[in-house]
Amino acid sequence: MTADANNEYPKASNATLIGATITYIAGLFLLLSFAGPYWIQSYPEMFSSFKHMGLWEYCFDRFRFPAYQYDKYFDGCHYIFGSVKMCFREWLLPGWLMAVQSFVTLGLMFSFTSQALLACVIIRMPLRTVLRYEWIFVSAAFILVALSSLFLFLAVSIFGGNCYRRDWLLYPSFNVLSWSYAFAVIAFILFGLAAILLFLESRKLYELRLEAKNLVAQMQHSQPEHALHQLRDQLHQQQLGYYRH
């Protein structure tokens, strides 16, 4: 009896489940893109001293920076904010790349927050809060997912438009966009699809909430009149009993 009673509450709709699933998949692509060191790489047959880079890492093979006053080779993969790259960090990290890092980081943060909200809606935890404010949960998740899609669109657009600049990496014609960048593009598209589904679902939930409020208001208006009729009937019965006695 208790188990059946606990399962009588309404479950999450199919649109919410599909939107949440797409959001989780997009979040996985975004996480791999965020951590992956392959936003751009050089063609292997070119034997370039630059190998590949991500948002937070550069990889070189006997790379010599022309403006560096000492004749030194840079090998291996290094964190972009590490001490090894300090001598030419301004060249490795131009303003447009910092903007890309910021947009991807914000998109990742908003993605995780929206996934937490959608998880609460799906598992109905906490139950009373979710059932009462489900439209707010879904609306907030829609806004966060839409912002994630927008920020990723800005990130891939800025990176794609600036990654072949000649004042950044040497010999840009030797390089090609790689799988980490492609994952960011896929995540941006998936977040957009999920945002559409969540928007439609949030609007539907809001309309159902308005209908429920209108029904409650109608019941409240009709309830005093119904109670008055009941009180009149009780008084009438009491008067009849009094006169009979």
TrEMBL record:
Membrane topology (UniProt): Multi-pass membrane protein
One Gene Ontology cellular component: membrane
GO BP field: regulation of tube size, open tracheal system; septate junction assembly
Chief location category: membrane
Superkingdom field: Eukaryota
InterPro entries: PMP22/EMP/MP20/Claudin
Transmembrane segments: 17-40, 96-123, 135-159, 179-200
Keyword annotations of the record: Membrane, Transmembrane, Transmembrane helix
Localization (cell): Membrane
Name of protein: Uncharacterized protein
Lineage of source species: Eukaryota, Metazoa, Ecdysozoa, Arthropoda, Hexapoda
